[in-house]
Design brief:
Strand content of chain B: under 5%
Radius of gyration of chain A: 19 Å
Distance between the termini of chain A: 53 Å
Helix content of chain A: 40-55%
Number of helices of chain A: 6
Largest interface: A-B, 60 and 55 residues
Distance between the termini of chain B: 41 Å
Oligomer: heterodimer
Radius of gyration of chain B: 27 Å
Number of helices of chain B: 26
Strand content of chain A: 15-25%
Largest sheet of chain A: 5 strands, mixed
Structural class of chain A: alpha+beta
Largest sheet of chain B: 5 strands, parallel
Order of helices and strands of chain A: HHEHEEHEEHHEEEE
């Protein structure tokens, strides 16, 4: 087998596997819903099931995205999206998990904020950040989007204890250079590595996207944000 | 208040507000090849207040259901196993006119990113949802789709009714309104400009958009405009850039190949279609075109495999036609394999028995193959069959098919049938010198020039005179007399473009003079419809359509 054809086989296997696992996850989610509906008293304990289903799916999406980004002929599929639609979509996906875990979700975004982004990739980044926030928050998670200095800022904030000091230090020492993020021994590292790649793929004129992790959010806990250049014109004149 | 209302904007809410009946009592179809998945989706819909939904497990089943029930919502899995995929279902349903403008079609995919094939703007689903999804997301997306549909409904409706001038006017007005759906309107408007041959307008509009933001669809439409303005080199470069950016931009490959053909580069064109057919093999028209090009380029193996794919995927498709079978027939004959050719044509007759035009072509080809291997009795048997189909469908057979039958009849020395068709073709095409040339070639090639040349010129002269008289009457203001004459003439030559267009024009002028009149309106539509049905619609046809639309407003 030539390496070219084995690559093709691998791609086909990857696509089919993902398709199949996603079908299983969808059915699993359905089962959990049914069991939960029949067991109202113990309803809350199923929140973890749904959360883990989300996490498996998030990992799958990230794996596939990383493969594609590295593959030959990759191009960014950036299209115009209304950001509030995008954020409320993600909110709707997490609604059941958040309800079961008694977490309040706040979406803060002007309804006319539109930007050209690769929705699939940026979705993976936010999904990862929310998934972390669900684990570490106390009572609230906020998805906030706004425009600042030619960048679209998408942030995920919570009212938990915030990032450990050591992690913030490591992050600031690396100065936003993804090659030094250690992916070998932690999934947090993998998530950040992915987020940074996605951010840097978004470029416009002389601006390049980046990520930030601080404890200076509006809710007092951690604040993860991805900053994507908005380009020359945010609103199009027709 | 629904959970979705709560989520939009800078508001907050603890968890979500539970199931809401915000999409209730709609007719819904769920298409998925896994029965468990269909049940799972229905359970979600029930939680959202939708008690009932129909199921389809494959493309064929889905098409039947869509044909017979006018659904409000179709939730269709993209990947349906071996048969049709979701995109094909949508494309065919559109083509057949089964999808009413208000129907919301949502494609369910395995991936969040755009991995599925991209086609024409007017054939896109209203939304994509990636698996696995929650009922809250489904509800959110459905509400969003309904809102968008409501906002754009009048454009969709005008397009569905082919009131293109209206659709353009509405879209242009909406564009100024700064609505949230301004880009969707811009997309529809671009496709409308192209459809109504407003290429210069499309060019200006799309250049303006692209100067501000790069968007692949805008480039795709712009390249089409360049193609129509005969700037093939510019167009082909743009289409190729699009396929380099996204290898799933299927229509861009087809258009790129079209440009190559216009530039007389059949080899390049073949290569592009071959690439497209590898990525998305199920499109029948593409496989046929590939077969045709490969045959012209001498790649018989590639041609045979393309036609084979077209036949295979056509089995359960409304896009199946005689084209792929006849293409295959040519190749088998070229290889000297008459037996296989005959069995191919037999399969074609089985597959196409419900379409008289396709069936006529295939039966005629069968007679030809038998004639070619000295099976005169068999050949005449099929010729008789073909004649029967021709007679039973008089007026509904396109001229090319009739010409093929005439050639076979003359070859088999059936002068009665041959000369009848030749005369009728001459009458129907008295206004088309190119076709008359072809007709004369057939007559010459089959060795019947002596008997038939005169008949051809007689028929054409007679009808040309009639048409002239009709025009003279109209010009001298005798519109009713003109219409009467043209109507009579058009009964004699129902496929004649000149008669049909002039008759329609006479109706339109009478309508203008005397105001609304249902009978005249019906007639005008009838004659214009005939032109369209016989595949002879042109610029003048489009102009008359526009005039008619202006009157009926």
């Amino acid at each position: 087998m030539t390496s070219d054809s084995s690559k093709k086989h691998f791609e086909a296997a990857l696509a089919l596997t993902i398709h199949d696992v996603k079908n299983s996850l969808a059915l699993f989610l359905d089962r959990v819903e049914v069991v939960q509906a029949n067991d109202a008293a113990a309803g809350k304990k199923y929140g973890n099931f749904k959360y883990e289903i989300k996490r498996i799916n998030n990992n799958l999406i990230r794996l596939l995205a990383l493969y594609k980004v590295g593959a030959e002929g990759f191009t960014l599929q950036d299209e115009f999206h209304y950001i509030d639609d995008f954020l409320t979509d993600i909110g709707a996906e997490y609604a059941a998990v958040l309800q079961d875990k008694n977490i309040e979700l706040i979406v803060d975004c002007q309804d006319d904020l539109a930007c050209q982004i690769d929705k699939g990739l940026v979705y993976g980044v936010l999904d990862n950040a929310i998934s972390n926030a669900v684990r570490y928050t106390h009572t609230k998670i906020m998805l906030k989007a706004f425009e600042e200095d030619g960048f679209l800022v998408l942030s995920v904030q919570d009212d938990g204890d915030g990032y450990p000091e050591q992690m913030l230090q490591e992050n600031s020492q690396q100065g936003g250079c993804n090659t030094s993020i250690d992916v070998s021994n932690s999934t947090t590292g993998l998530g950040n590595y992915f987020s940074q790649i996605v951010a840097e793929l978004h470029q416009s004129d002389d601006k390049t996207g980046f990520i930030r992790m601080t404890n200076q959010g509006d809710l007092g806990g951690s604040c993860f944000s991805i900053h994507l250049p908005t380009g020359t014109a945010l609103h199009i004149e027709l | 208040m629904s959970s979705v209302d709560i989520l939009v904007g800078a508001k907050s809410q603890k968890g979500h507000a539970g199931p809401q009946a915000s999409i209730s009592n709609r007719r819904i179809l769920i298409v998925d090849d896994f029965s468990d998945m269909r049940l799972a989706v229905r359970r979600m819909l029930r939680d959202l207040g939708e008690e009932d939904a129909d199921f389809a497990g494959n493309g064929k089943d889905a098409m039947e259901k869509i044909q017979h029930t006018s659904y409000d919502i179709v939730l269709c899995d993209y990947n349906l196993g071996d048969g049709k995929d979701g995109h094909q279902i949508l494309e065919e349903a559109h083509y057949m006119g089964y999808i009413k403008p208000s129907c919301i079609f949502i494609m369910i995919t395995a991936e969040t990113s755009r991995h599925h094939v991209l086609g024409a703007i007017e054939c896109q689903p209203d939304d994509y949802i990636a698996k696995p999804f929650t009922k809250e997301l489904l509800q959110h997306r459905l509400i969003k789709a309904v809102k968008k549909k409501d906002e754009l409904m009048d454009i969709y409706e005008a397009m569905y009714d082919k009131r293109y001038a209206d659709a353009i006017k509405i879209a242009e007005q909406k564009l100024a309104s700064k609505s949230r759906y301004i880009l969707d309107v811009a997309k529809l408007l671009s496709s409308l400009y192209l459809r109504t041959e407003g290429y210069e307008k499309a060019l200006e509009f799309l250049e303006k958009i692209l100067a501000q933001k790069y968007m692949p669809w805008a480039k795709f439409c712009l390249a089409q405009a360049y193609y129509h303005l005969k700037e093939y080199n510019t167009a082909v470069a743009m289409f190729d850039e699009l396929t380099a950016e996204s290898q799933y931009y299927m229509d861009a490959y087809d258009w790129s190949a079209k440009c190559n053909l216009a530039l007389d580069d059949k080899v390049q064109a073949q290569e592009k279609l071959a690439t497209a057919a590898r990525i998305s093999p199920k499109t029948i028209s593409r496989q046929c075109k590939l077969g045709e090009l490969a045959k012209d380029n001498g790649d018989l193996d590639i041609a045979a495999s393309a036609y084979r794919s077209a036949i295979q995927y056509g089995t359960h498709s409304c896009f199946k036609s005689s084209k792929e079978y006849l293409g295959m027939n040519d190749i088998l004959l070229e290889r000297g394999d008459t037996l296989k050719a005959l069995s191919n044509l037999k399969e074609a007759r089985d597959q196409l028995k419900e379409n008289s035009v396709d069936l006529l072509k295939v039966v005629t080809a069968t007679a030809d193959v038998h004639a070619g291997k000295d099976g005169k009795i068999e050949a005449n048997r099929f010729l008789e069959q073909a004649e029967k189909i021709y007679q039973e469908n008089s007026g509904a057979i396109p001229d090319e098919a009739s010409l093929g039958l005439a050639a076979t009849a003359l070859k088999l020395d059936n002068m009665k049938l041959g000369s009848a068709i030749v005369s009728s073709l001459a009458e129907n095409n008295h206004d088309d010198d190119a076709f008359l040339g072809k007709l004369k070639d057939v007559v010459n090639d089959t060795g019947h020039a002596d008997e038939l040349s005169e008949a051809i010129s007689e028929s054409t002269e007679k009808l040309r005179a009639l048409n002239k008289e009709g025009i003279r009457l109209a010009e001298s203001g005798q519109l009713r007399e003109s219409l009467e004459l043209l109507e009579k003439a058009s009964e004699k030559a129902p496929n004649s473009k000149a008669f049909n267009l002039n008759a329609a024009l006479a109706c339109i002028m009478l309508l203008k003079e005397n105001g609304q009149n249902d009978q005249l309106l019906f007639k005008a539509r009838h004659y214009l419809g005939r032109v369209e049905k016989t595949g002879k619609a042109d610029k003048r046809h489009a102009e008359l359509m526009k005039m008619l639309e202006a009157i009926t407003k």
